Amino acid sequence: MITAANPILPGCHPDPSICRVGDEYFLVTSTFEYLPGLPVMRSTDLVRWETIGHAIDRHGMLDFDGIRSSGGLYAPTIRHDGEVFWIVCTLVDQADPSRGGNFVITADDPAGPWSDPIRLDADGIDPSVAFDADGRVWMHGTRLAREPQWHDQTEVWVREFSRTERALVGEEHVIWRGAVQGVVWAEGPHLYRLDGRWYLVAAEGGTEFHHAVSVARADEVTGPYVGNRANPVLTHRHLGRGAGVIGAGHADLVQAPDGSWHAVMLAMRAADGHHYPLGRETFLCPVTWEDGWPVFAPGLGRLPDEVAIPWTDAAMEEGTWQPDDRRPGLVPADDHRWTSLRVPPQHVARADDDGSWMLPVRTEVLSDPGTVAFLGLRQQHADVDVTCTIETTDLADGETVGFVVRQSERDHAAVQITRTPEGLVLEVVHRQADSEQILLRQDRAFASSVALGVRARGWSYEPVCDGEGLPSVDARTLDAAATGGFLGMWFGVFATSNGRAPRSHVRISDVVYAPSEEAVQRPLP
Q1: 486 CB contacts (<8 Å, ≥6 apart)?
Q2: Are 383 and 461 in contact (CB under 8 A)?
Q3: Does residue 1 register a pLDDT over 80?
């Protein structure tokens, strides 16, 4: 038997969706402006996951140019129709809502390649897909209510999708507006056909402290749907801010080969009840069925701290395989965890055979919503040391290279080195709501390379230069609760000519992600 700590996917892995094919589970999460997008993860035990590919991994599949932080790819759903894998998702540009929209992609192999996106003529976000017994395909999703009774009221729609026409066809049906009177953001809907009935699982309350899971059922996919009298069937809002885990919601159900049921959902670990620098993470929850309704976390009524799985894989028990978040140490350039902003990493850098990156300097700075010379990793543990070696020999006058703790264009903290006519200058910069503060500025003499990084300890981010600790930044000034948006923190390297014509490139090597042993077991702030 496997016993594992929740969350099963630490770090920014929000809006999880899951399906099972045979003895294997496949899961996807939101990735917003980071690419490659929509990691496809595989597991045989529901608690240990490896990334086998990304659904949005080719430059030009979708247009991310100019999309700001917390825009991009929202709330994917993954399903298998018996032959083909489907993912439906939304591309969001908050500055221009007419851009982007809902789309569907398919693949024979979940590792890829995935098809080019097919646009769906449907408003809103959080699309999902369900397959009827007769082979019909039912798309559904969330949008702001056409005739709202209160602010931020949403509605869930369902409509048939034609496989031959590759488009939505027939009449649209509005099937749900939430379980609670006055509730906001009934969203993240998933339909399931079980024992002659259709079940709807949806989130409501907004993806923050008041988040919740509600359930309804109907005899026909188009309704009418009747809500469970126990709604919301799972929430942490009644536990107060001292619960440690807040914002539970956006659930998706899956049945195991042994007949047991489980749900994945997002929640946030907030030691002070408010702040969560690791972002919205993926949790696992046991589910049973009573009187024709799913019961989440039976006998407990909240997400468990640990989950027990009564089956396992021998290779995993022998320690011959490790999931993404349990591989401390060197992170070579071919590691699936690497991301970039709005383009795949290979579009801004070259991965060399020795595991290093060659990163050409680009004009854009970190506050630009464009193609920045940036390579990053999710923060998955509260207590972690992350370092890298950066060669500075070729850096031209006016060019900057550095290591950044990133929330968004508006909010980040960096330790950086700039070449000037007089030599190299070391700075620690804290950008907050587009206002920049210089915490440290010193002329420094460096060798041909320098080790930059961060020492993260709970609420503290301490920049590090060649092992020396520098002025720290409070994580509670950078996380989504402080700044808005939907993301956890990223660690990354960047190189910019600060608006001038770029002339050089830098080599990034020996990238080490080293969480404390305690953080690996229980990475709480």
Answers
A1: 14, 30, 32, 70, 207, 279, 280, 480
A2: no
A3: no
Among residues 483, 38, 16, the alpha carbon closest in space to that of 263 is found at: 16
Intra-chain end-to-end CA distance of the chain, in Å: 28
- In 3-state terms the chain splits into helix, strand, coil percentages (rounded to 5) of 5, 50, 45
* Whether 147 is catalytic: no
Q: Which residue has the tokens 């992350």?
A: 386
Rounded to 5°, the CA angle 227-228-232 comes to: 100
Q: Which residues contact 1 (CB under 8 A, 6 or more apart)?
A: 308, 309, 310, 311, 312
**Assigned architecture for domain 2-325:** 5 Propeller (2.115)
DSSP string covering 400-469? EEEEEEES-SSSEEEEEEEEETTEEEEEEEEEETTEEEEEEEEEE---SEEEEEEEEETTEEEEEETTEE
Residue 488 token pair: 């956890």
Q: DSSP label at 81?
A: -
Burial 194-215 (b: 16+ CB within 10 A, else e): eeeebbbbbbbbbbbbbbbbbb
**C-alpha 510: how far from chain center:** 25
| Digit-coded pLDDT (tens) for 445-464 | 998 999 999 999 999 999 99
Based on the residue annotation, tell me whether 15 is a catalytic residue of this protein. Answer: yes
Residue 327: predicted pLDDT = 59
> For residue 315, what pLDDT is reported?
45
Both structure tokens of 438: 């210089």
Q: Name, in order, each residue with C-beta under 8 angstroms of 442's C-beta and a sequence gap of 6 or more.
A: 425, 426, 427
Q: CATH classification of 328-521, choosing from 1.10.1740.10, 3.40.50.150, 3.40.190.10, 2.60.120.200?
A: 2.60.120.200
Q: Residue 131: what are its φ and ψ, rounded to 5°?
A: -115, 130
Tokens of 85: 């894998």
- In this structure, are residues 51 and 34 in contact, taking their beta carbons and an 8 Å threshold? no
pTM of the model: 0.95
Distance, in Å, from the CA atom of 15 to the CA atom of 248, rounded to the nearest integer, reads 11
Q: What percent of the chain has pLDDT over 90?
A: 91
Query: Which residue in 1, 31, 84, 519 sits closest to 282, CA to CA?
Result: 31
**Taking the domains of the chain in order of start, what are their residue ranges?**
2-325, 328-521
Which is the catalytic residue, given 33, 187, 399, 411? 187
